[in-house]
Design goal:
There is one protein chain. This protein has 803 residues and is mainly alpha-helical. The chain has four domains: 30-50 and 70-201, no CATH class; 206-325, 2-Layer Sandwich (Phosphorylase Kinase, domain 1), CATH 3.30.200.20; 330-465; 480-664 and 677-799, no CATH class. It is 60% helix and 5% strand. The chain has 31 helices and nine strands. The strands form two sheets. Strands 1-2-3-4-6-5 form a six-stranded antiparallel sheet, with helices on both faces. A three-stranded antiparallel sheet has the order 7-8-9, covered by helices on one side. A hairpin with a 5-residue loop joins strand 5 (309-314) and strand 6 (320-325). The longest helix has 28 residues, at 693-720. Mean pLDDT is 77; it is low at 1-14, 128-132, 275-281, 623-640 and 674-683.
């Protein structure tokens, strides 16, 4: 812990090169792994797809030749400045004794960039010249040094380095030192090497030192005698404890100008994944402190006990600072014996008072509830407070407060205090929100150390309120039996297809062997982005505050469940369970899942009408026996239309013979009719998303992008076999198959989808053997392989109690 004792005077604050203290601890961030993996995938894709003599390369070469020769010095200077800046970074680290360990970081990043660039050159077949130009070695190496140094240097110098990286890339193109594909690969390799170095060694947060905080407080007119790091820290900010000359205890919240956690990529990661932590996306550091100050003042004016605001402003270095007065110690740091029932009820009254004026705290846990020695209480850290909160936000606050108090005093006393203030009816109202996904990370971690679990707390609260504990909807599981049935159904379907189109499995296998496997690998890389678009649609259908990351993993998990359920049923069923984990009732959860699926059908119908009612290329060939096949069979052979219908009938019969599918399609009809009225009443509130343009845009836009990416993947698979088609034709084929498959109660549309894609490809003039092979490849990368990572996603969701 850093402690600084200072006299009551303003410390000098001059420009600095490095962003943080030399002894600030390093830590690894999830974004380092994300950037490293993404960079490696992009580098490999660029190496595989980099064309020789491309139109882009020719255009750049022509532009370089047309540039005035007198400006050649300028392009050379742009490239040289990056090398000079990299040397300045290395030299500055070498001249500072406590920064010399960074020299090892730079050496590792440069070595990694050379290895990665050589690997990319080997993949592209240009290993001897490293993608055609040794200048790329300098570009990649210098970029890796700049990226590695980014968390260590102050914000202005970060932007200088980034600007010089792009200037050097443009200079390399104008000098003709490398092709556009090569320059882009060099940049990606350098950035990837820097991310790998951060992953290996960690990086500092870039927060101000204790001396800098003391200087900032002096600038705000506060004389402090002591500044120290606060025991509990929050990602994206720095918390300090200070003591004034009048012996007042202060809490100082600083959003540093140079804070690495506040950078765009890390902010995006926080906003997409973390529950209960502060996402910075969309608001600057000064807006964050101003929002917290405003929320605190409004709550105090409404009679809510809070930690009063002492000062808010900006330091000389550009850090945003908020100072509040400390009133005691946190509830999490208190003992059960020190927290009596009066304190518990006071905490509940404080939260109820906040909700009474339409506000919600947003981050209630044991670290944001303050208890002073005299029995008073206060709500701290209102940075995530909603000034005009929804009813659901207030219910989530209460669920979190019940868990926070139970973690200290136990379920019985916590529930008793809640019912004493709220009454049984209001206690029962927020019971559905007592779910792990609603809680902050710190609360979930503390729950693991207790001798009771969350279901015990729910049961105690339900018994006190006199209601039944809410039960989540069961999820359809993938069993060994269902996998065997899916495998047999697949083999049977392809045997029928190959027999009816006059192609044996050997011919199909020979066609598959002739495919360009590098292009198929690109299809395999692009295909996993389809669920990422579908996740946007799910966010739009939800009235709950969800994080994008878990919703994206939900879509991958649906790909796994689809092995045993029809695609629409799998999507609705798992989404319903997911929504219930956020306190949404069964009726509303079902309606949200249905709204999500219906929006997908609406997009598919819209695409179908756009292609059919315009002059865009569509179907061009009649698929009737010998007209659409290269087979030597006579015209009396069954057409592929018959194949399509036969596969559908056989798949439907098999699905009805499987007990679980039969029960899903036909069972419990009487019970469903009896509960329709109750479900509609409960679901009424979920249809509010249809009145919000942003929500509608997310649903329609997410499904539209997903459909277009599927068509793109189909086109990549077609190109792997040496064929091509208009994009509108690919969209038409994929849309027709998705529409028909969504109506069939067949697990994964096995057989139906394959026959549909084969039929559609033949309808645009693709030979039968190629159409069958493309359909196999497309289904392989979009259906048969995704369950591998879908199973891992489902396990993650189960482990974190999302389903």
């Amino acid at each position: 812990m850093t402690v600084l004792s200072v006299p009551a005077r303003t410390l000098p604050a001059g420009p600095r090169f490095f962003s943080s203290a030399a002894d600030e601890p390093y830590r690894r961030r999830p974004t380092d792994l994300l950037l490293a993996l993404a960079g490696a995938l992009v580098a490999v894709s660029l190496a595989l797809l980099a064309p020789d003599g491309s139109v882009l390369g020719a255009a750049v070469q022509e532009a370089a030749e047309s540039a005035p020769g007198s400006l050649a010095w300028l392009w050379s200077a742009g490239f040289g400045l990056l090398l000079l800046w990299a040397a300045v970074i290395v030299g500055a680290s070498a001249l500072r004794r406590w920064r010399r360990r960074l020299l090892a970081h730079y050496a590792v990043s440069v070595t990694a960039s050379v290895v990665l660039l050589a690997g990319a050159g080997w993949v592209s077949g240009a290993s001897t010249s490293v993608l055609g130009s040794p200048a790329l070695l300098w570009l990649a190496a210098a970029t890796s040094v700049v990226v590695t140094a980014s968390p260590h240097v102050a914000r202005p110098f970060r932007w200088v380095g980034r600007a010089l990286v792009w200037a050097a890339a443009a200079s390399a193109l104008l000098l003709g030192a490398a092709s556009p594909w090569g320059v882009l690969t060099g940049l990606v390799v350098g950035m990837t090497a820097g991310a790998l170095t951060h992953l290996a060694f960690g990086s500092p947060g870039g927060h101000p030192t204790a001396a800098g905080v003391a200087a900032a407080l002096a600038d705000l007119g506060l004389d402090v005698l002591e500044v120290r790091d606060a025991p509990a820290q929050v990602p994206g900010m720095a918390l300090y404890a200070a003591r004034t000359a009048d012996d007042d205890a202060l809490v100082v919240t600083v959003f540093g100008r140079d804070a690495w956690d506040g950078q765009v990529v890390t902010s995006v990661w926080t906003a997409l994944w973390r529950r209960g932590e502060r996402p910075h996306l969309g608001r600057g550091r000064h807006a964050l402190v101003e929002h917290e100050a405003l929320a605190t003042v409004l709550a105090e004016r409404a009679g809510v006990p809070v930690q009063p605001v002492v000062a808010v402003g900006r330091s000389a270095d550009g850090d945003a600072v908020l100072v509040t007065r400390a009133r005691g110690r946190t509830l999490a740091a208190s003992d059960a014996a020190d927290v009596d029932d009066h304190v518990l009820r006071a905490l509940w009254r404080a939260v109820v008072a906040m909700h009474a004026v339409g506000m919600a705290h947003g981050r209630i846990d044991g670290d944001r509830l303050v208890v002073d020695p005299g029995g008073g209480v206060a709500l701290a850290d209102l940075g995530e407070a909603e000034i005009t909160a929804s009813p659901a936000a207030a219910l989530i606050d209460r669920a979190r407060l019940l868990v926070a108090t139970a973690l200290v005093v136990g379920p019985e006393r916590a529930v008793a205090a809640a019912v004493a203030v709220l009454g049984p009816a209001e206690l029962a109202e927020f019971l559905p929100y007592l779910q792990p996904p609603v809680l902050a990370k710190s609360a979930r971690r503390r729950l693991h150390a207790c001798d009771w679990n969350l279901p015990d707390l729910v049961a105690a609260a339900a018994a006190t309120a006199g209601v039944e504990a809410p039960e989540p909807m069961p999820v359809q599981r993938v069993t060994p039996r269902s996998l065997v049935i899916a495998t047999l159904l697949t083999l049977f379907a392809w045997a029928i297809i190959s027999w009816l189109v006059g192609l044996d499995l050997a011919a199909i296998w020979a066609e598959l062997q002739s495919a360009d496997w590098a292009v198929l690998c690109v299809a395999l890389v692009v295909a996993p982005t389809i669920p990422l678009a579908q996740a946007v649609s799910t966010l739009g259908a939800s009235t709950a505050a969800l994080r994008y990351g878990p919703v994206a993993l939900l879509q991958y998990a649906i790909q796994f469940i689809s092995l045993t359920l029809p695609s629409t049923a799998a999507r609705v069923g798992l989404e319903v369970r997911f929504f219930q984990r956020f306190g949404i009732g069964p009726g509303a959860a079902v309606s949200m899942g249905v709204i999500d699926s219906v929006s997908g059908f609406a997009v598919q119908l819209g695409l179908l009408l756009v292609v059919l009612l315009t002059d865009l290329p569509g179907f061009t060939t009649k698929v009737l026996g010998e007209e659409a096949s290269t087979s030597t069979e006579s015209s009396s052979d069954p057409s592929l239309v018959v194949v399509f219908l036969l596969i559908g009938v056989v798949a439907l019969a098999v699905a009805l013979l499987v007990p679980r599918s039969r029960h899903y399609a036909l069972g419990r009809l009487a019970a469903a009719r009896a509960s329709v009225r109750d479900q509609l009443v409960a679901a009424r509130g979920s249809f509010v998303v249809l009145r919000h343009p942003r929500k509608l845009g997310e649903m329609l836009g997410g499904n539209l992008v997903a459909q277009l990416i599927e068509a793109l993947v189909l086109g990549i698979c077609l190109a792997a076999f040496g064929e091509e088609a208009a994009f509108s034709q690919l969209v038409l084929i994929n849309t027709v198959v998705c529409l028909f498959g969504g109506l069939m109660p067949v697990p994964g549309n096995i057989g139906v989808a394959e026959a549909g894609y084969t039929l559609g490809l033949q309808a645009i003039g693709v030979p039968a053997e190629v159409a069958v092979s493309v359909a196999i490849a497309f289904r392989l990368v979009t259906f048969y392989l995704p369950p591998i990572w879908g199973a891992a996603s489902l396990r993650w969701l189960q482990r974190h109690a999302y389903v």
